[in-house]
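Q: Can someone sanity-check these two? First one:
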Amino acid sequence: MTNVTRNKKCSKNNNMINQQDKKIKIKAPIVDALKNAYENPTYQFHIPGHTKGNGSLPEFKKLIGAKALSIDTTDEFDGLGTLHPATGPIKEAQDLAAQAFGAKKTFFLLNGSTAGNLALAMGLTKKGEKIIVNRNCHRSILTGMIISGAEPIWLIPKRFDEWGIWGNVTPESVEDMLNNNPDAGMVWITNPTYEGVVSDIKSIAEICKKHNVPLIVDEAHACLWNFNNHLPTTALKLGADAVVHSLHKTGGSMSQSSMLHIAENSKLDVDAVEKALKLLHTTSPSLMLLASLDAARANLDSPRGRKQLERAVQNAKYLRKEIDKLEHIHHLQPDFGYKTDITKVFIRDDRLSGKRLESILEIDFNIEVESASDAGLLILSNIGNTRSDMQYLVKCLQKIDNTNYTDICYLEKKKHMPMLTPIIKMTLREAYYSHKEVVEKSHAIGRISAEVIAECPPGIAVLLPGELITEEHLPYLTDYDVIFKSTKKLKKLIT
């Protein structure tokens, strides 16, 4: 196919999509309700006290816009509905989201997927109950278990030592864990990993059903999967009981807005989850955040949104193809029996640490990436990125590849944890609520961590509450991390 023919074809497809957009009325109930409230203003004698921005700092109002402040209201007013229980446009928007993602029930979350993980732990686990969890889970899962008193049984994923990252969870390891812990009440898997490595959730779900335990999947980084055939299949279709999605990460909603989905055939106690969410959520929810979730779902489920997602996939393929031509820079590929989310491109340079590569991109080329560690850095191909964005990135990587940049040894290892099997001396809850003190890193060896110590992103714990601190942890600790104070009783525990 010639370039002229390809361009004509692309132009024709674009015109067809534009025509479809005009014909199709995309339902966005919360967006429509806010629009109606904006177009039919009232005299407000209720919260928020800035009263449509009139009480705001002028500089702030100018920065974010008077219109944004005018629609910053809470539920219960202007026919906007309520969040708990969901009524009006909010309930309608959640129902539409459940339909779009293939769920029985969907809850909107206003504190990220963290709120969903906390609610699942609080609503579905209890004190002393064993929960099988992958070691590279997000800190919010640990926090939920601190609150509920559940005790994690650590499932160790594959290690990609060459890349310095955790890999996939194998079905065989899940089967072994369930056989060795027949009293386990749940399996909780993170999929994909932060770097986009995908586990075989279908097989894991079948194993969980055989053992009659529910499967929860933290799918925070995979909210796009149900809207493009080039991406992996969402756990909601593969047998998981519940899934969280961070729409704000890659789905186009505003920061800290996410969704929690209960699967169609799940036997989970939905009421218990909703009661936990009611405890966790604010009683003054932001309609702007709720509307952004509604808008993100509507966009992803529209011809325009699917076109944007396909562009993101093709941009990622283009980036990977161009990286393959470079001498020193490489990208993580599904070469060893695992799958990846193509839109998450984890790269490394043979000569440079990931932190150094990140600093070069930022300082020399004005490029910001998702995250970096000593091992490499993560680039996201987002629905909002254009082909010209990706072409500029490729040009910069080519220049770096052909330039004799030097590494900087003092850059700290902050982003990724050491890939260690934890040595557990106390339960999460025991350690967290025990007496603590702050100690210098050099004095931490042999002590017990009292808190979840994790930098976000990726939010994976370097140390767990109750974990013995070893010398291998030290390069990953900061000077302000809180370490357990050993009482006489606990000194005996440590030795």
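And here is the second, same format, sequence then tokens:
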Amino acid sequence: MQYRSTRDSNTQVTSAMAIKTGLAPDGGLFLPETVPQVSLPEIEALCGMTYNERAVDILSRFLTDFTQEEITTCVNRAYSREKFETEEIAPIFKLNQNTYFLELWHGPTCAFKDMALQILPHLLLKSIHKTGETKEVVILVATSGDTGKAALEGFKDVAGTRIIVFYPADGVSDIQKRQMVTQDGNNVDVAAVCGNFDDAQNGVKQIFTDKDYNEMLAQNGFMLSSANSINWGRLVPQVVYYFSAYANLLKNNEVKLGDKINFVVPTGNFGNILAAYYAKEMGLPVNRLICASNENNVLTDFIKTGVYDKNRSFKTTVSPSMDILISSNLERLLSLATNGDDGQVKAWMENLKSTGKYEVSAGVKQKILETFWGGFCDDDDTLDEINRVFRETSYVMDTHTAVAKRVLNQYAAETGDATKTVICSTASPFKFSDSVLTAIKGAPETGDAFTQLAELAETAQASIPKSLAELKTKPVIFRTTCEKDEMVDVVSQMLNLA
């Protein structure tokens, strides 16, 4: 299977090359030329498989230049009991007759990003070998919180790679920051950016598309790649857990084969929900994909109006991983919705860059509305939903999952749709203990993040994830802070080129 750029269909590469380079030379995103199909009997067969076996099955359909053995090796190294606290990897929790949580946070960093970033380093190394690459690969990452730690943990001490993570100085939780600045590994670097996530993401994209700078890196034995969801190797593993969720519902007699279900996905960069869309296009029985946003509701407005407009005030919220105004992966959906019209997609992206907005055609808008529904809620509603669900069921949600649950309430009230629905639970509540305790108790007893972990454990009658409990004694290693226009200089310094 070949992969093409969203902005130039003539740019075609293998999956290994797409994973190695991350971003297309023209600034576009790679996506498969065709979407492989999965039949209902094949979905039924997933019921008798482990998560790892399901992953091999789905990934093999996309990574056709990888052998079955290579994919199996990558999968087994990624999804092990050594790294995940549950044998199921991505278990389903039944909240009520119609609602389920797909818990994606049982990995080493307690966030759904582990589902992709534990396997991406292994896919990348295989891709490097397959393409004959001899340069050291520099993984450049912008994060709104969770991706950074997950990428650092996944790539630490991986031979032939360096990883540099930029995060917004005041745009992540205390726990998220602590996870990054205490990261060990001989090939990792971290820096805070004075600005928001979009500033960090734009800075990274500019470095990727700076031809002169990339030529200088090549002359010094380096090449850039990405661990953000712009990298296909990061996105395709996320397709797996949607099939796995359906297989688990089928196995537990919660649905019958062929029954359609809804998914609710809290999202900022549109990667997680795009993976769900790919699952649907492959044949997974999906009714609606409900896109849940916080007050940075650029995606909600786009889905409802067909106008993408980032020209609005940026909100810092209690769900910081969704504090994003430029949703990079939406570009892939636009390519799919226009049947690969690279000229049109390129024009929209140029408009976004020059004016901060674009408007899709009525036909594209309608195609998106056939599958997607968008909603958002503010911080007060987010905290209220955490409180309500905890009081009624004793189940504790993090802030991002709570956004999804609140938006599901909106969707059900507006549409009357009673289809069984799976909510993507994207982070452990312990990562946001301050906000969760505020929701449940009115306020935490102290402002200390680690005391709050213990308080939440007692309140929720739950165990603190081991990786978070260990943070308290880990020394701070990284203290670099830079302006957004200094990011390229920071990269050079970290690579000893300046």
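A (reply): Looked at the second one. The first strand starts at residue 3 and ends at 5. The domain at 92-112+233-464 is CATH 3.40.50.1100 (Rossmann fold).
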